[in-house]
Amino acid sequence: MRILFLTDNFPPEVNAPASRTFEHAREWAVAGHEVTIITCVPNFPKGKIYQGYRNKLAQKEYVDGIKVIRVWTYIAANEGFVKRTLDYVSFAVSATIAAAGMKRPDIVVGTSPQFFTAMAACAVGLLKRTPWVFELRDIWPESIKVVGALQDGATLRVLEAIEMFLYRRARIIVAVTEAFRQTLILRGVPEYKIHVVPNGADLSRFGPRAKPVELLEKLGLTDCFVAGYVGTHGLAHGLETLLDAAHLLMHQPGAEHIRFMLLGDGARKQTLVERAQTLQLTNVVFVDSVTKEEVPDYWALLDVSIIHLKKDPLFKTVIPSKLFECMAMGLPVLHGVEGESAAIVQREQFGETFEPESAAGLAEALLRLSNAPDAGRQYRENALKAAPNYDRKTQAARMLSLLADVARMRAAATSLRGGSGNLDTGLSGISA
Q1: For the domain bounded by 213-389, which CATH number is listed?
Q2: Residue 418 — pLDDT band, cuts 50, 70, 90?
Q3: 88 and which of 13, 116, 400, 420 could share a cystine (Cβ 3.0–4.6 Å)?
Q4: Whole-model pTM?
Q5: CATH code of the domain occupying 2-200+392-420
């Protein structure tokens, strides 16, 4: 099967869409399928091109059996609605043009968070007379409204109309959470075309390991209880809550050994650094983004991982992908996200939840856990026990099965159309 996958994030970028796409595509290539990725030059989240790459019309490389085509885009940092939109639209146009000159695929996939990539997949599907699949990683544009990047008005209504058009045109929709599936059903999207393939972790990369002593010394974290956040420092993440909790603990007896490590970059990074300086937080360490290969070493520094999003009903539908990496690393979590992801933490019993945006709740949980080593050990054991249930290989196989079903039905439709000229190609027979 020839799979054409459109995504504006791909390694060496290390965010969730890049990791999921690469790890799925790698497994599909191992299974013998011809996988082509159309993406842009790596630049997320700073909007700066990674060393060794150039932003030119098209360039080709092979990564673990995957053919990767990188196209020109307008590059902007992950901040500012207009510039980011220009970034998204330019990728959609360039990706469509690049795909037009390629051999006809059996199936096209476009992934969110933003849906301009899905628009490109839709266009390529029409050009190539090939079914296309919408991989839904975020309810967009609702999510940008929640973080204040876009207000109610004509622009939002137009984007929502495009969103619903794409849901209708996609042959199937592969959502990453059950909550996304239910949201789409309530909005009138046919239930039969929505399928759930959740995120997971690459167990060949992420696993328990000893704390790297040299790295602890370098960051000044030796003999400390290290609570860490690893990931994008964006508008949705509400990381001010972590700084406020650090401020509370600076004045809390018995909390002298607790340190916060925030690793990553994003639209709020500089603001967070300045806030920490204003509050004179001596218990917070900021670390810039590291390579994909280095990430497990930084996870290994932690005694507990903090996962947090702003308090909003929309984020109840989200499952942060770092949750599964923590599980694979055997890391206890303090989880400040409501909804489906909190239910996973509670079901697998590898951490505790706290109310989003509650600095006091986070500080209290950290102080309690830092003085309860037996609880920490039990959470680590539970995490490692649960991790195989969220193996990325299993999720890749599930999605591949869905893509294969769509491709087979398209092939059957083409064959029968040659004789009868008409065939209903709905996928109501595929189970979710």
Answers
A1: 3.40.50.2000
A2: low
A3: 116
A4: 0.84
A5: 3.40.50.2000
